[in-house]
Amino acid sequence: MVDSRVALRIHEHAAIYLTACMESLFREVLSRVLRSALVERDNGIPKITQESLEQAISNDSEMWGLLQPYQHLICGKNSSGVLSLPESLNLHRDQQRSGRGGEGPGYSQAELRTLEQSLLATRVGSIAELSDLVSRAMHLLQPLHIKNPSNGTPVHQKTNTTVHWEPEALYTLCYFMHCPQMEWENPNVEPSKVTLQTERPFLVLPPLMEWIRVAVAHTEHRRSFSVDSDDVRQAARLLLPGVDCEPRQIKAEDCFCATRKLDAASTEAKFLQDLGFRMLNCGRTDLVKQAVNLLGPDGINSMSEQGMTPLMYSCVRGDEAMVQMLLDAGADINSELLLDNRANVEGALQDGAENYTETPLQLAAAAGNFELVSLLLERGADPMIGTLCRNGISSAPMGDMNSFSLAASHGHRNVFRKLLSHTEKDKGDVLSLEEILAEGSDPGEKRLAPQANCGGTLRTGKARLRALREAMYHSAEHGHVDITIDIRSLGVPWTLHTWLESLRTCFLQNRRPLIQGLLKDFSCIKEDEYTEELITHGLPLMFQILRTSKNEVIGQQLSVIFTQCYGPFPIPKLTEIKRKQTSRLDPHFLNNKEMSDVTFLVEGKPFYAHKVLLFTASTRFKSLLQNRPAAENTCIEISHVKYNIFHLVMQYLYCGGTESLHIRNTEVMELLSAAKFFQLEALQRHCEIICTKNITTETCVDLYKHAKFLGASELTAFIEGYFLKNMVLLIELDNFKQLLYEPPPAESPASSPGICSDILQDLEKTLATRIHSIHLSTSKGSVV
Asked: Is the domain of 400 the same as that of 479?
C-alpha cells in the first residue's frame, strides 16, 4: 500500500484490516478445500494436494475471482464462466427455513428459479426490464440480510431503512448491461441495418447481484440512502476490465431520498434549499439573490447536510469565478478559517474523555503539508499528542502514532525537522509510577542533545525520547533512512531492529557512506539486545554486504562487528578421544621382521607388521588386508604416505596411544592426513589438537584449506572461530582476503565433500552458533 502510493497517508489500521481480511480469506479458502478434499482411508484426514486445491478453487464462484491476478474483480462465476449464487445466499435453503419458522413470504419453486435467474442476469434489453429486476432483487436481498447479516447481501448501517435506486443510477447501470439484440424480441422494434459492436464479451460481465452489492457498498460508505450514478460507475471500475472513472467529487447531495422520511413542510424546505444550492452552482450572477432566499435563514452562509457552505463547495471545485461571485454577494470569507473562529487547534480531542481520533497536526504531518504544520504549531498544537487519549492524558504506548511518527513514516523530512525545531512551551510530562521509580536507572536514556541545525531545543523527558524512538522505528521500517539518521544525531539510541532495517535500506540503495556510518555505530547497540533477529536477518545481511562490496573500509568495520559478536570467551577447545582398549603388541615388535605376517611397501622400503593388530585397528586396515592378493610374499604398497609418517601411525597402534609419540610441527599435517586415511579417529583428533595449539595468523589460512580438504569438521570449526576472533588482524593479510573474496571452485566428482563450500557461509553459520550459545541460550555463555 505504501509502495503503490494509493493515498498521501496510509493509516496503520488500514494495514491491520487488510491483513485481517487476507487471513480470513485464506481461512475460508482452506475450509472450502477441506470440505471438497478426499478423505484418506488410513487416518480419515482430508488429503490436500495441489490438484485438489486448484479444483476446489476453480469450481467456487465466490473464491475463484478473488484469487485471479487481474485488476478488476471477478465475482459470481467460476473458472468455466458458469454463473451461480454464493453459498451464503441459497434461496431454496432460506425458503425452507422461513417455511418452518412461519416467517417471511413463501415462494414456489418456479418463483425461486425466477428470482435466481434475476439475480444472475448479466444482460437486459430495456430500462424497464432492469428496473423490474433491481426492484425484485432489492426486495429479496434486504430482508434476508436482516435475518442473516453474515450472508454477504447488500446492507445498510441502519437495518430499518431502505436503500433506493435513483433513476439516473438505473440508466447508468443499463448502459453497462444493455444488450441491443434483446430489444429485437419486441415485434414492434425493427433492428437497425448497421450495428456498431460495442458489447463486452460474456466472460467479463458480472451478474446483477454483484452490481447491486458493490454499488450499495459505495452508497453506504458515503452514508447515503440512495444509489446514484456515481456509485454505479465506481462499481463498473471494480467489476469491468479497462473501465475507469474519476474519484467521487465533493458536491451537494440530492435530498430526493431523504425527503421520504420527512413531513410535507420539511420536505418542501429541503427541496427549496437543494434548489438554492443548484442555482448557485450554475454560475449565473443574476440568480444569486433568488438562491439566497431559498437557502433559508442563514442565507448564503447556509450549510448543507455535509456541513459545507456554497463557498466551500466552490473552493473544493476550484471554481474561482464562482468564489468571487459568492464573495461579492456577501459570503463569509472566514467560514473555513476555523482557527480564527476560536476552533480547538487539537480538533476533536476532548480533555477528560477517552479519545481515539487524530489531531489536525497529525493529519497535516502525515500528508506532508508544511505550511499547515507551521500554522498549527504557531497556534499551539502539540506534536506529542498521540491517537490514543484517556482521561485527558495522551499516552504513548509502542505503536501509537504521534506527529513525529507520522511525518517520519511517510518520509516528510522537512515536516519532521519543523516539528523538531518548534520551541515547545514547558509543560511537565505525566509519568506513570513505574516510570517515576525507574527514572535515572537506565543509562541508555540520556538527555537528548540539542538540535543545533534546527535552532530549537528538545524536551529532555522520557515522553519525548519515547516519541523519537517510535519515529525512528517507523522511518526505518518504511525505508526513510535520512530521517532515521537525523533522529540518531539527536542522541536517540539505536535498537537492533532499527539499525538492521536502516542498514538494509542503505545496502539496497547502494549508499556506501551511510553504510560505513551505520557499521561504525554498531558498537552502540547493547549486547542484551542481541536477539534471534541478529542471527536470522542481521548476519545474512552483513555477510552479503561483505561479499558484494569488497571495500577495505567496510571489510574492516564488519571485521570489528564479527569479532565483537563472537565475544571475549575463548574458542571452544577440542578434546582427546578416548580410544577403546583393543589388541596391542609390545613396541618391540614394531617394524620387526621376526614373527611378522604382513609387509607394507612405503617409499620403496618394507615395513613389517602383524595382522592380529591391524584387523582390529580400523576398517581401512581390515579392508587392505582382506583385499590383499593370495600370494604369500605379496607386499601391500602405500603410495601416498611418507615412510616416517607411516612409522608414526604404526607406533601409535603398537603403543596403544599417543603418549609415546614425538610429532614435529612439520609432520603434523601429513600425520593428520594419514590418520584420516587410515580412519584412526583418536590419532586424528590428537593431530587436530596440536594444530589448534600451534595456529598463528600466518598459518591459519593454509591450515584451514587443508582441514577443508580432509573434511576435518571439528578442526575446521575451530579455525573458523579463530578467524572470527582475530578477523581485525586477518583482514589486513592478502591470503585471508583472497580466501574470503575469491569464489569457490566448481565442484567436481573427484573433490572431497565440503571443499567447494563458501567460506562466508561457513563463517556465518559458526558465528550464528556462537551468538546463540552466548546470548540466547539459557546458559548465557557457559557453552563456548
From this structure: yes
